[in-house]
Amino acid sequence: MPIINWTNITDFGDIPSQANNATGGLFWTSTLYMVWVVMILVLIYWGFEVAILVSSFLAMIIAIILVYANLIAWYHAITFAGIILFMFLYIIWSGRKTQ
Question: For the whole model, what pTM was predicted?
């Protein structure tokens, strides 16, 4: 049995979904999180907070595009929104003056 069932591909829009079918739905999700980690590693030079905020924002935009392409679930985009919110709260908390 071939990995990709070519009989299910009727137009070009079916090609990206075949990667999910062959990997049990994890291809685009794992690709998204790997891109997020690579972006963090690239941006860590400018600081931890900047790296997390910028990479999470870009990953959230990519996740929304993948959601509308029907390749991943909504909770992946919401996860990145939660990380951004958490980082904003962390920046506010860490900037307070302790006396």
Answer: 0.80
